[in-house]
Design a protein that fits this description.
Radius of gyration: 21 Å
Shape: globular
Oligomer: single chain
Number of helices: 12
Structural class: alpha/beta
Order of helices and strands: EHEHEHEHEHEHEHEHEHEHEHEEH
Number of strands: 13
Strand content: 15-25%
Length: 334
């Protein structure tokens, strides 16, 4: 698949902007801004300068999780009169180059993921030295502050894994297969380690090639066929849950399929019982909050978190909540 390691490959989004009037004579600027935000309907709700923010993630091609992150970021960008740029590469070296390109372009703020933090450190610190505020999102909460970022928006992956282990205990499971689809991703390792920390049963890790779904399915199927004691499969991303369901059927296994992250297919699977539970880290909120927090910093010098991550999860979602969330998932916001 094509890669876009230069700034020319960065997609432009959220290009709508209208300059609105100033303060209200009756309610003050904050009240007026709030009224405008409610009535914005795709138009800017503020009259601050049109800053440019770049988001650079470790997403591979076709990862629907990042579509939801972008959806939130674009909505906040419209509201905040921000020119939003998005680029991605699942190869850490290329992702770092995209950050360097954003610095060279002298953007007004950078949002970046740190799935492979060692490879990203120099690029993030270069942005800081250039006076460009950086917010980390989704992965890298442990490194964010040390690298010079303002704050981190996302879920603590260890805590999320611990929540999964506790939920498996409630369900009486004895042996879980934790399926890692991206080798070298520290967040994925933290998730599985968190599961093992609180789960009273046994956890076994299975590494698969997440860019090749047939390979994922065959690997999970082979493991379930070889080990009938596995009664829970935990996938680390929503797109892999359905693949695990297919692998279970082909293997003739009765293992419960559980997953990190939520999308429309996962919500439907929870509703109809093909999936047990999901861990929602609210990717829409990650994108929205990251853009909004950069805007607040540029506009008012505000920083949230007090040196700690701004947590968007984990939330355990079961069949009971699935119907309510399914409509949100279908529109691409959960």
């Amino acid at each position: 698949m094509a890669r876009f390691p230069t700034w020319a490959g960065i997609a432009l989004a959220g290009a709508l902007s209208l300059s609105l009037a100033g303060c209200s004579s009756t309610g003050g600027k904050h009240a007026e801004d709030a009224r405008k935000a409610a009535a914005a309907q795709g138009r800017a709700a503020v009259n601050t300068p049109r800053w440019t923010f770049a988001m650079i993630t470790h997403s591979g091609d076709g990862d629907t999780f990042w579509d939801i992150v972008q959806s939130g970021a674009k909505q906040a960008a419209i509201k905040d009169n921000v020119n939003f740029l998005y680029s991605h590469d699942d190869q850490a070296q290329q992702q770092a180059q995209l950050v360097d390109a954003a610095v060279d372009k002298k953007v007004d703020g950078i949002i970046v993921t740190l799935a492979k933090p060692d490879a990203m450190k120099a690029a993030v610190q270069r942005a800081e030295k250039a006076g460009i505020p950086v917010i980390t999102v989704n992965s890298g909460s442990a490194e964010s502050k040390a690298f010079g970022a303002l704050t981190h928006v996302g879920q603590d992956e260890t805590i999320a894994g611990e929540a999964v282990g506790e939920e498996l205990n409630k369900r009486g499971k004895k042996k879980a297969l934790c399926v890692l689809h991206e080798q070298g991703n520290v967040g994925h390792e933290q998730r599985c380690a968190g599961v093992a920390k609180t789960f009273t049963g046994k956890v076994e890790k299975l590494y698969v090639n997440g860019t090749d779904m047939p390979d994922v399915q065959s690997a999970v199927e082979a493991k379930l066929q070889a080990d009938r004691s596995v009664d829970a499969v935990v996938t680390l991303g929503a797109p892999y849950a359905d693949t695990a369901v297919k692998a279970r059927a082909d293997a003739g296994s009765k293992a419960e399929i559980d997953t990190f992250d939520l999308n429309a297919e996962v919500a439907a699977g929870l509703r109809n019982g093909t999936l047990g539970f999901a861990v929602d880290q609210q990717p829409y909120l990650q994108g929205y909050q990251a853009v909004d927090l950069l805007w607040l910093y540029k506009y008012n010098g505000d920083v949230l978190g007090g040196g700690r991550p701004v947590l968007t999860g984990p939330q355990i979602v079961t069949k009971d909540q699935a119907s309510a969330l399914e409509d949100y998932a279908k529109r691409g916001t959960r």
